[in-house]
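Hi C.,

You asked whether I'd gotten around to modeling the 499-residue construct. I have! Everything is below, sequence then structure, no commentary in between.
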Amino acid sequence: MFKKSTFPHPYFTSHPNWKWFILTTVLVGATMSALDVSIVNVALPTLKDSFNVQLAVIEWVAMAYMLTLTIFLPLFGRLADMFGRTKMYNIGFIVFTIGSALCGMAPNANFIIASRVIQAVGAGLLQANSVAIITQAFPSNELGRAIGLQGAVQAIAMSIGPFVGGILIAAISWRAIFYVNVPIGIFGTFAAMYILPKTESRPKKEKIDYFGISFFASGLAFLVLAVNEGEKLGWTSPIIIAYFVLAAILLPLFVFTELKVEHPMIDLKLFKKWAFSVGNITGMLSYYVLFAVLFLMPFYLENILKYNAALTGTLLTPIPLSMAIIAPFAGYISDKYGSRIMTTSGMAVCAASTLILSFMINSSSIPLLIAEFILLGIGMGLFTPPNNSSIMNSAPRERLGVAGGILNMMRALGLIFGVDISGFIFATLKHNYTAAHGYNIDTAGTIVPQAIKIKAFMHGLTIVILTLLAINIIATILSAAKKDIKTRKIEGTEPIDLM
């Protein structure tokens, strides 16, 4: 076997087009980790029956993955900055592949939940480093296009996840949705070993901020758990209140620690840069809106319009599909004309889509619904790659890993909060409307007329969509106030040496 130091030949690695091989390798990891977010959801009912457990238990198959991924993304980015992004990315492939194999052979629910945590660690190492490696490989004037391609691939992977998962479960078994990652992971591991740039040695050793890691991970975990479990356990539940209190104590302790230690887990100076702070905030808000729509619209389509699950899934597919089509072009345009015009226009289109949706939900026209969903996808496609590019361009070279980790963490928080908070607002409004019309659904045996049910549903949905409109307007204003980062030459213009 060839040694890594001699294969491939330096002639290829120094070629200006070698960065596209690096991008392709990163896309393998992006596809695998994005596919796994959505492919598992379709298997949850099957897993519940297979392991003969309660729904509350099997929900942790999805929850354990998202929770682990979210709270550790900045840490994985920080470790990459300390020990090398390529090294951490390679480890990510290996850990994710092992976790997938363990999920596939799981004998019980507890085993698969633990295996999903391992899987999430691997996915976190991949996600935290993917955008940093792309930023390192491409000059600023090509970065938007590269990140746009990554966004397109991730959007396609997430959109086809339920379809692929359904086919694998029907044709083979639920175990196949995990085993399918193993050959992809093996291929990605070897590709990363021989294609990605070598791990750079840091000029000086930096200590690991154990206190900062502990405060941040535990504080964020309690916050996510509180938001995620609030509706189920009740927002006044002692457990939920305790979660919020612990988060309110631990997260400020994290900030205090970071300001005092010599080598913090997250360099808070990054947030002094307007482009970095605003980019992350608007990124979280955009994902809040996107996943609130993806979460609530199936209930509307199935419960109100009486469409079946297959048609509902088909109607929602244009959102990620139009994102995938638009993203590379948006990245290319932002490389030429700056990110601000693209991020602002993208959020403005999203705002227009939610405004139109607030009027259109009383219509049952499938073409109009598809057109509206396409418009939302276009807005997200216009916004996401330029925004990610501006965030990474605002971070110094030695902090690209932690910047990429924060970027992905904020999007994950947007996903979680978008589903949980919008779901809570919707359920509360629907409940209050029903009670205001004389029907207390908390009382056993209460029968609510169908007309009241529909009006209560539409009341809650309309108000939630209007809150999404307000969020989009805020994100549009913030994007418009953000200045473009001046183009600078970075590592991608220089020859790349391999280990």
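If it helps when you're writing up: The longest helix spans residues 400-436.

Thanks,
B.
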